[in-house]
Design brief:
This protein is an alpha/beta fold. The protein folds into 2 domains: 125 residues, Leucine Dehydrogenase, chain A, domain 1 (Rossmann fold); 125 residues, Rossmann fold. 37% of the residues lie in helices and 22% in strands. The radius of gyration is 18 Å and the shape is globular. Bound molecules: NADPH dihydro-nicotinamide-adenine-dinucleotide phosphate. NADPH dihydro-nicotinamide-adenine-dinucleotide phosphate binds next to helix 5, helix 6 and helix 9. It catalyses: shikimate + NADP(+) = 3-dehydroshikimate + NADPH + H(+). Belongs to the shikimate dehydrogenase family.
């Protein structure tokens, strides 16, 4: 029997066990997927070794990068990992968030220039994803510290953004709106940016954030982070089980999220 887990802090709300266990069951795998609440990042390596594979969520994705013996190219470029395999006494690190994002925006056409709001781990994964497609990117953030670590990308503070600049897609990677009514940046700035854009994407899922509501008012085609969550799960599953049943796994995971 194989054992998998999602490790994070907090972890109680994670949907990953529900998604993975339904796929494991439907694809008749002798395996189980659990939640692991870790508080101390120095214990991550020891805990990972208890499982055949794990997903890593907030706040340990950067620590997952550090403890890995082998890093996939995407992990090296992004600087964080959300999927680890433990085999032959070694930890192998992958990042399926970035492919998850690309799959999620599959139906956004003709995207040539993207504005990413926020400069944390998710912003880096999304910027890497867009870079692999040769899409022009600007990353904007409310404060300087994180921007200074993003030397590979064009970056600026919200205060220095040109409100009339055209972007095909605007992505909110901040947690503004997750537990409050905040927008990631000023409403006037966003209104101007939305006037010239076609698509808006929010990595938050399961609720209409103020960012999404405003984008809707400007008739943008919008999408939340649910498909990204689903697709990162599908690709993690394929790594865990060393298989390729993409459509079947996606359907099983999608169904799991619809179950009461
Ligand atoms: P980080 O902590 O690495 O980065 C957070 C970023 O958000 C920073 O740039 C921070 O700015 C900014 N920020 C936080 N609060 C506010 C606010 N109130 N107003 C403006 N900016 C703010 O987080 P992650 O990148 O790891 O995660 C971000 C979100 O992405 C989380 O909500 C997470 O759940 C979600 N996510 C969704 C996924 C999916 O599959 N749908 C996958 C992965 C993550 P500053 O630098 O100034 O502090």
């Amino acid at each position: 029997m194989k054992f998998f887990a999602v490790i994070g802090d907090p972890i109680v709300h994670s949907k990953s066990p529900r998604m993975h266990n339904n796929a494991l069951q439907i694809l008749r795998q002798n395996a189980v997927y659990v939640k692991y609440h870790l508080k101390d990042k120095t214990k991550l390596r020891d805990i990972v070794k208890l499982f055949d594979g794990v997903n890593i969520t907030i706040p340990f994705k950067e620590e997952a990068f550090k403890i890995a013996d082998f890093k996939d190219d995407s992990v090296t470029c992004i600087g964080s990992a959300n999927t680890l395999l433990y085999k032959h006494n070694q930890i192998y690190a992958y990042n399926t968030d970035y492919i998850g994002f690309l799959k999620a925006i599959d139906d956004f056409y003709n995207v040539k220039k993207v504005l990413i709001l926020g400069a944390g781990g998710t912003a880096k994964a999304i910027a890497y994803a867009l870079k692999t497609k040769n899409i022009q990117i600007l990353i904007a953030n409310r404060s300087k510290a994180r921007l200074e670590l993003l030397s590979d990308y064009q970056c600026c503070l919200y205060d220095d953004l040109n409100p009339n600049e055209h972007f095909d897609l605007i992505v909110n990677t901040t947690s503004a709106g997750l537990n409050n009514m905040d927008l990631p940046c000023s409403k006037d700035l966003l209104k101007n940016l939305f006037l010239n854009a076609s698509y808006a994407f929010d990595v938050i899922y399961g609720k209409q954030t103020p960012f999404m509501k405003l984008a809707k008012q400007y008739n943008l085609q919008i999408k939340d982070g649910l498909q990204m969550l689903l697709w990162q799960g599908v690709f993690a599953y394929e790594l865990f089980l060393d298989c390729k049943n993409t459509e079947e796994i996606f359907k099983a995971m999608e169904l799991a999220l619809k179950l009461p």
